[in-house]
Amino acid sequence: MELFTNQVLAGIATGAIYACMALAVVMIYQAIDHLNFAQGEMAMFSTFISWQLMQWGVSYWAAFVLTLAFSFVAGIAIERILFKPLAKAPVLTNVAGFIALFAIINSSAGLIWDFTIKQYPTPFGSSPFLGSQLISTHQAGMIGVTVLLLLGLYFFFQYTRIGLAMRAAASVPESARLVGINTSWMIALGWGMATAIGSIAGMLIAPVVFLEPNMMGGVLIYGFAAAVLGGLTSPFGAVVGGFLVGIFENLAGTYIPGVGNELKLPIALALIISVLVVKPAGLFGRHIVKRV
Amino acid sequence: MSAAEEVVAEGHEAVEAVPKRAMTLSTTTSLVVLAVLLIVPLFAKNFIIFQLTMLLIYGLAVLALNILTGGSGQFSLGQSAFYGIGAYVTAVMMEQFNVPYFLCLPVAGVLCFGAGFLFGQPALRLSGVYLALATFALATAMPQLLKLNFLEKWTGGVQGLIVTKPDAPFGLPMSQDMWLYYFTLVVVLAIYIFSVNLLRSRSGRAFMAIRDNEIAASAMGVNVALYKTLAFGVSAAITGVAGGLSAIAVQFVAPDSFTITLAIQLFLGMVVGGVGWLPGSIVGAAFIIFVPNIAEGISKGLSGAVFGVLLFLVIYLVPHGARQVAILSQGRIAKLK
Question: Contacts by B108-112 with C-beta closer than 8 Å and gap 24+?
Answer without folding.
Answer: B108/B240, B108/B241, B108/B243, B108/B244, B109/B237, B109/B238, B109/B240, B109/B241, B109/B244, B110/B237, B111/B85, B111/B86, B111/B240, B112/B82, B112/B85, B112/B86, B112/B236, B112/B237, B112/B239, B112/B240, B112/B241, B112/B243
